[in-house]
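Quick one: structure tokens for this chain, please?
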Amino acid sequence: MSSAVLARMSRARFFAARPVRSFVVSPVFKPTTAAAPFSSASRRLAASPADDPHDPHHEESFEEFTARYEKEFEQVQDVFELQRNLNNAFAYDLVPSPSVITAALRAARRVNDYPTAVRIFEGIKAKVENKNQYEEYLKELQSVREELGVHLKENMYPEAS
């Protein structure tokens, strides 16, 4: 193309009429026929927090804790899940019940993790308040230990105790 043609094209575009924009503003708020009821009170206050076990501030009872962790340990499929559940269970300010410990020991043997089964008893020893409580746990869990073949660290390494 020649420069004259290009100049004519650019002038034609420059002087071409542009479409006019519509300046009609659409309403932001649409009027409603009925207003929704308003309340400054929270819906959560209507029901007692003890009624909702999924409430993050719900105080879990010892029985609920025991049932939850028994179920968790029954569903363990690998070592990671086992150790994560043990870490969570022992993180609370309580000693897990013998039924939870039994479920944890069975889970440890199911995933073939003998060292963790032995360390469960070390965790109990660290969590209890005195030696008598530890002895009670050992007496209660004696049959499970024999059934699963779990030895105590203090029996395997008496000089380390």
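The two ends are 98 Å apart (CA to CA).
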